[in-house]
Amino acid sequence: MSTPVFSIQTYGVNDTWANWFNGARHRWNDTPTPASIRRTIKDVPRDITAGRYDDSWSGNYMYAGTRERRTFLIRVNARRLAEEIEPGGRGFALAAIGTSVHELGHALSLADNPETSRSSIMKYSRPLTRTHPYDYDIDEVNRIY
Asked: What percent of the chain has pLDDT over 90?
């Protein structure tokens, strides 16, 4: 995104998932960065959803357009998370939030597996139940914006 201030639309999920997505937004909004990710009920081309996909990824960020006119779809794979974490437990909720935080990191222009020895929410090797951006992620968002 050309700006760290944008709205996303939650769709096709129940209130539990909507709350987890809101938690992920707040994890970024509460950092000392210019990130301000709002939830909207208006039709915007930036969506976040969850489902039981037959793929191996936990989360998926698909985007289109230029950085200035970026649209995206974030999908969280409940089936894959359930394979990694016991469904229904607190760990599953944390994994859903953490995966959403990771995917929102992409919307904030962060890449997967950054070349750093520092901890990052964007690394695949992070604990799946980590729900907050690390200092490295915060530094990167501040560097970009």
From this structure: 88
